[in-house]
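Review form for a predicted model. The reviewer records the input and the model, then writes brief findings.
Reviewer: anonymous (R2)
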Amino acid sequence: MTGTEAATAPAATTRDTMPAGASLASRWEQFYRWGAYVLLTVSTLISAAVAEVFSMTRGELYAAGVLVLAAFGLQLWWGRARHRPDRTLTAPVYYTARTTLAFVLTWLNPLFAVFAATGYFDVSHLLPRRAVKAGLLVTALTLAGSQSGGLPPRGPLGWVLFGGLFVINSSLALLFAHLGSKEAEVAEQKAATIAELERANARLELALAENAGLHAQLLVQAREAGVADERRRLAAEIHDTIAQGLTGIIAQLQVVTGTRDPDLARAHVARATALARHSLGEARRSVQNLSPAELEADALPEALRKTVAAWAERTGVRAGFTVTGTEEPLHDEVASTLLRIAQEALANTARHARAGRVGVTLSYMGDEVCLDVRDDGLGFDPAALAPRSGTGGFGLDGMRARAERVAGAVTVESGEGEGTAVSARVPLVRHG
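Model under review:
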């Protein structure tokens, strides 16, 4: 009777996607293919060996032999038909014919119930769901007849024994079938849940890939926007400083060529010379802002270390430099931005802070890089931004603009007499 539970188990295990489930399903497939042959052969040999015990007549022996051959022929036919497209129509026909042959053989010799027990194992595999109970009851009827001593039952006591065994067999068969059906439903629900989770994971992975692509695209756009903004800034600076200076020089020299007064000529030449020196300084500053020479030979950490050391030697202020996290090769634009921000922050400290000590920290934090410049100087009110100087640099506004060009940000913490902390955070874009 324990085979009834197995009758429905394959329906669940064949849906399992794990390797162990696939192996179990393969074993059940082998049983469906060869199990009936084995049980039919075993029951035939046993029945033939003990035929005299059951007082089988010659006619019954011949009839049993014919039915055994018919059963083997049925199995051969099913071996070819079980994989055909019309299997849903032929499977019930095969199950019905096999169960009928098993019933008649068990009537002739009770030991053919070994073959009849096959109906417990593959009933849910061969019959439609609405016909499974009927198939189980017929198999239970055949086995109850065998267990009660053979069909038909002999005498009232035989019928009572047969009835009791039939109730027991059918109850257990239906119970195990019900439990197997519930287990199959749970397996189907789990399989559906797993499939839905896999689809959700696939959608999530696709969304993450799209987000990564968008992030990279935004960085590229930010860099391109930064380049365009830098070009506009340089064009404005050249127009406002160098071009105006050259215009002034030309105007002064034109006055010199048009006058005969030596004193007036010397005065205008002096003015032209001053304008030329100023324009040269502006040109040098603009060129310096394009590409830091410090990064031509060194990576950002070493360039910052040398910059801080040179600044400390030049100003006489104690300064230290620290790197935290795992160093990464940064994109040229990111490294240049952080170096320029550090130089501008140190320059502001030297001009305004009157600090006794300065600390510069470069931190690699996963997908971000953070630069911190802290001093113990006078401090100031961050809401009142320092005006743009005339000696190079652009103060806090300039540092913020530089960081924004690479999708970063600059924050300032300061207070009167509390020192100043400048922090720049930019995306970690590796050197391409």
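Findings: Residues 68 and 133 are 26 Å apart (CA to CA).
Further findings: Strands lie at 318-324, 357-365, 368-375, 409-414, 420-427.
Recommendation: see findings above.
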